[in-house]
From TrEMBL:
Protein name: Cupin
Amino acid sequence: MVNQHPVSPVLPHPLPGAVGLSHLSAYDWEAADGVCGGSPHLHLVCSEAYVVTGGRGAVQTLSPAGYRETPLEPGSVAWFTPGTVHRMVQGGGLRITVLMQNSGLPEAGDAVFTFPPEVLADPERYAAAAALPAKTGPEAEEAARRRRDLAVEGYLVLREALEKGDNGPYLEFQQAAARLVRAKVPAWRELWRAGALAAAERTGAQLDALESGDPAYLTDADAYDASPTRHGGYGMCGRREEYELPGTTLPYRGE
């Protein structure tokens, strides 16, 4: 029997799996440790993938397994699950395409910078440190670089502890990040229902229809295309090209 309660998409025509999509050019700003790259951070509920399209570099990660640096070159794919601190570092012309689980959630604050503990403990102070005053221009670049440096400051403490076999600071950061975003979870749940969950449930309804011999849903078939609608935004890891489409990738708040 055909599913009598198919899920109507709230986000029209999402990408496959309702993933988010953007393109990044890694920052070439040198940080306190002499490395050029982005702002270390983690995601609370979203896995993220890097598909390298040009240049060279690496992604540095912190996880319960410790510190790891994964080389990136054209054709490489690297991905990390929620809770993994990651930092994209520049090796020369590094460009990646980012695929993000649960489109809409990262843009709604699922990502948390590795700021020092005293900043994470104060939601207002965290918000001020994470925000950018404009989308583009010298003021935006200065603020993006300042928050990158602050995130690296906290990150280096976590990395040093893990390298010494002490995962306490890393676990404390995860707990602080979870406390910081807790109030946002109800809104995230609605985004997830409208996006990734709805996409999965539509597949279930389509399987039911095929099994019953009634593929009428195929009459809705169509093709779509899009181009970036914003170039050179200041993302967490680098300069960002975005697709400002419902169900795809919306701009990060504060950028």
